[in-house]
Amino acid sequence: MKYNVGDIVQIKSWDQMKKEFGLSSESINCHKLFTPLMEREMNKERELEIVEVIEIEKCYRTTQLGCYKISDDMIERKTNGAYNIKVEFNFQESL
């Protein structure tokens, strides 16, 4: 389990999950199925706060999704629009 209670995460887009995991009927094949109903329930709000970690089922609950459970493969850490950029400098001192 990657996340803890209180962590802010975001649901990956339907298209991103569809590309990663494929469809089974109308649902996406992640660890816990992501359904069109869940997508509608999100109401375009992708930022979620984890309120319960269910170790035995390897999933989480959030207040925003009510009874629906989400799994690590559906979510990513909320970045607040920031990017992680690795910058390397290679300075050579001349004599």
Gist of the model:
With 95 residues, the protein is an alpha+beta fold. It is built from two helices and seven strands. The strands form two sheets. The protein has a five-stranded antiparallel β-sheet, with no helix packed on it. A two-stranded antiparallel sheet has the order 2-3.
Tag the structure with descriptive keywords.
about 100 residues; 5-stranded antiparallel beta sheet; alpha+beta
Indicate the topology.
Blueprint: E1 8-11, H1 14-21, E2 23-24, E3 27-28, H2 36-42, E4 47-54, E5 59-62, E6 69-70, E7 75-77
Antiparallel strand pairs: 1-4, 1-7, 2-3, 4-5, 5-6
Plain-language structure description:
With 95 residues, the chain is an alpha+beta fold. Helices cover 16% and strands 26% of the residues. It has helices at residues 14-21, 36-42; strands spanning 8-11, 23-24, 27-28, 47-54, 59-62, 69-70, 75-77. It has a 5-stranded antiparallel beta sheet with strand order 6-5-4-1-7, with no helix packed on it. Strands 2-3 form a two-stranded antiparallel ribbon. It starts with 7 loop residues before the first strand and ends in an 18-residue tail after the last strand. Mean pLDDT is 80; it is low at 82-87.
